[in-house]
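Researcher: Next entry in the queue.
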Amino acid sequence: MSESVLNNQNKQQELITIKNITKEYPNTVALKDISFNIRRGEIFCIIGPNGAGKSTIVKLLTGQIKASKGEIRVHEFHTIKDRKKILGMFGLVPQEIALYNELTGRENLEFHGRLFDLSKQFMTQKIEELLTMAGLIDRQHDLVKTYSGGMKRRLQLIRALLHEPEIVILDEPTLGVDVQSRNAIHRYIRDLPSKGKTVLLTTNYMEEAERLADRLIILDTKIIDGPGRLLEIQERVFPNLIIEFKTERAMLKSDFLTIFLQKELKGKIISEKDMSEKHVLLQIIFDTIHIEEIFEKFIAYTKANDIPIEEFTLKRPNLEDVFIKLTGKEFRE
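Model: Structure for this entry, 333 residues:
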């Protein structure tokens, strides 16, 4: 297939176009010259630390604020000039819990449905379906103030789906919830494209993006990398596997660190993290594909020199490794 045909196909798939967006405030720049496209039917993830500009993109996309420069289009519609025409296309799950605590779960959904002028018959059927999907059918008549944090997050998610939006925007949808609720929400999100939805997900949980994203960008005011598949970004930033292990800090002498690891094995320390007063976790990357040879030499050396090694793994770098490599700082700073 020719490159021009592929480009035309990608163009037809583009649902959201964000072009040269900058958002400035009097004392800060929230976003700087951001450009990317979101394709129909994909889960597109924006990942970055707190303050990276993730929620700013959500507010710009939904027309809540206006960009200082650039433009955003959904289909052919401009998000500011045509805001009334596109609002019904969005189902928004905000970062903050935004429910009516003195209403029941069902009443919260019914109120939302009336805002979108849904018919009573459709709304009744859809609410039953969504409450069942979210595991809330038995709690539908309880006041929301009695719900756990995870239940509230699930209710917010299905509320955003009630009016059958084309685009579902999830702004850190699992913030502060327990692992069980997070896994349940992940299952709902992963299934949304099969229901004809396009998903924009913002998160600062690396494992969330790793599990859900079809494509992603790494954001820190500007785009650090992407858009692309996670594997593409990982292989571009870290083309080889790395060794991770825990050892006693007292054993990190220059013979081991500089002469053996860096000079003889030609490795590079990419992370050194204190695990306790006594132990440190190291990650070493090697500019070679012969990882088996590296592994054998490493094991032989540590045994011969009585260097205690714990939690030894060979792995491909995750998103946190990529972020630290690209930005030079911890992901959650």
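Model: The chain has twelve helices and 14 strands.
Researcher: Noted, moving on.
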